[in-house]
Structures are given as structure tokens and as C-alpha cells.
Design a protein that fits this description.
about 45% helix, single chain, about 160 residues, elongated, alpha/beta, 6 helices
Length: about 160
Amino acid sequence: MYSQSSNFSITRTLIACLAVYGVYRGMRFLWLKDARNRACSKAITGYRKWTKREISKYTGQTEDTPILIALKGKVYDVSAGRGFYGPGSAYNVFAGRDASRLLATQSFDDGITEEEILAPIDRLDDLSEDDMQSLDSYVGLYSVKYRLVGELVEP
């Protein structure tokens, strides 16, 4: 009735359908998670100037508090990535601060300090070319994935 090649075709079609369904389920999960993250945080509206002290208040400590990160003088609302940047997550150390140097050098520290808030904005002029390329990659990613809400300025 069926030849061996038609059984093979049916099997390939079934595997392809299962793979497509798996991708759909994964994307749906991520989309719903992203929608929940956006819904539970108060949105930062407009574009404005931010000081380091002001962004330090936006670390996502409560579900409705936005999460801000500064990179190369630009401030991004990364609340959609609460699973990455929220309290207790792996990258929470970057939340509420100028994370330029940390991301460029792939460094983790114990979190923002008063000394860091009071220091001038890091000019990053001593970073290596590789570190700057790494940082530029992050800026590209953030500018596509997250909303730009302002620029980092001195008080």
C-alpha cells in the first residue's frame, strides 16, 4: 500500500510539524512573559535627562518599578527584561546604574555604591578597542530590544 519512501516522507513531515509547534510554544511563552513584564511596570514616558542618582532609584525592587540601565550616555528602560535585570536575577547588578564599563569588560561587582553615584560620568577613554567593540554591541542590542528614555547627565 505505502512505499518505504512515503513512510519516510510522512515521518519527516510529522517531525517538521512537531518542530514548528515547539518553536511556536517557545515564542508564545516568551511573548506572554514579555507582555506580563510590560503590564506590571509603570512606564517611563518621554525622553529626558537623567542623573546617576535618579536612575539608581529604578532597579525594579517592586513589581511596578521600572528598571533603567545607562550605556554610553543613553538611558534605557529594560523593564521588559525583568527576568534578567530584576531583583534576584543574574544581571540585576547592572540595574539602576551606568553599566557601560561593566558590560564592556564583562565585569560583575557587588552593586552600585554611593561613591559610584557621586563620581563623574565615566568617559570610558581607557577602555581597549575590544572592550569598546563589546560595548558598542551591547548598545546596538539595547537600542533594538529596549526603549530609549533619555540621556545620562551630570547633576
